[in-house]
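During the first year of the project, the team set up a workflow for recording each protein of interest as an amino acid sequence followed immediately by a discrete structure-token representation. This format lets reviewers and collaborators read both layers of information side by side without switching files. As required by the reporting guidelines, we include two representative entries from the current panel. The first entry is reproduced here exactly as it appears in our internal archive.
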Amino acid sequence: MNREKGMGFCGLACCLCEEKEGCLGCREGTCPEKEQCRPYECAQSRALEGCWQCEEFPCQAPVLQSLRTQAFVGYISKFGMEKILDRLEEGEKDGIVYHHPGLLTGDYDGIENEEDVWALLEGSKKPQKA
């Protein structure tokens, strides 16, 4: 985990992403996808820390349509950035996978409701193994 990357404006865990070599996270403006990212542009133009501060959340931005992303945004809204980073770091130490090799999905995906995503974050639910 690269905690310094933090969380994306959209609620994705830049801190756990290794997809883009050299990317320092969207908060540093280095994400190669930033030109096409509605949450990035929106948060920048409205001076928001992220979607969790937006009254219009969830909007129709494609990245915000996943349950994982919506659950992470809700978690940040309720508990704050440091708490989710702590929970993601603990989860990684416990073997929870953010991205399976070669995929953009992991153990936080394929869950049926926000409460179960939060339970996985909190350690009270174990990931489903395929």
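The second entry, processed by the same pipeline in the following quarter, appears below.
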Amino acid sequence: SLFRYEFFHRYRLNGKNIHNVLLITPQTENNIEWLKKDGLHFGYHIVERISDINVLEKKLNRMISQKRINSVFLRETGENISKKVSEICDQYGVRLKLLLNMDASTGQKAGLDIMGGFPVMDVRKEPLLFLGNRIVKRSIDIIMAILSIILVLSWLPIIIKLAQIISYPGPLFFIQKRIGRDGKAFPLYKFRTMVHSNEAKIAMDGKTEKTREGDVRVPWFGRLLRQTNLDEYPQFLNVLMGSMSTIGPRPHMVGEDHELAEHVNHYRMRRFVKPGITGLAAIKGYRGGTDDLDLMTKRTELDIWYLENWSLWLDIKIIAITIWQMVTLRIPKAY
């Protein structure tokens, strides 16, 4: 609608919700100013342009790492060039969009955005790129968070604190920086399950020895919290504040995340969506073990499958399976 168009146009003109874009077009392209003007309305700020295909790979790697690029727009349609650019974008966790050589009216009929006279197509299917889907997911998150805080977090912390005082004294919560959407760090909240000195070291290091079955650092009550997933309940505070979702890829520690990004293909793509309290990979048993690259590769593949195939029904299914695993104490690798 006209109202919606004006609202978002003015919102982005004030510098809100802007994504840095790298533009790859032939040297002969002459409507760059139109692309810049139209791009701003859609929340894209074109910060750099590559026209020389001969230095494309080297320049693309350098610019993505130095300019904080969020998206790449590709006008060149050569198959080899498109494939190479797509591989580099996937590795860096940058979205790739194609400026199609198609009539604008045809692109509009196909439901595509039009920038500078070019229909724009996303290379990767992401249902959560659509505003309506994001509103649905965020609404479910808010409802789940409010209900969980009122019905559970209003009394559960008292019981857990009493058990901690008896068996492993220290703070009620364990707070640690994790990596969220777009690679941004945020403080994650959990009920403390380990002896305080060990968990404090984890919070400071951002990377430490993984817990194993029968780990002496985890007292009996801490193990119970992990086996029921109740230690994750305070993350509904993160959900309410918007740094997490109920469903999504599990967030990793800062040190782990940086290391995994260097060793697991396409790892950074899982940052396209908010991390979740539970997720597709978690219910399938791909938990813990971030030092196991085979496990992390499979977890990353499932996380990417989730962001490419998101639906409300899929989230409901994951929530139902998670609750069943909690009630039956069948949460895989919950130690």
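For the second entry, the following points were noted during internal review. Strands lie at 19-24, 44-50, 71-74, 95-99, 113-115, 118-122, 173-179, 185-191, 245-247, 276-278. The chain has 14 helices and ten strands. Both points are flagged for discussion at the upcoming steering committee meeting.
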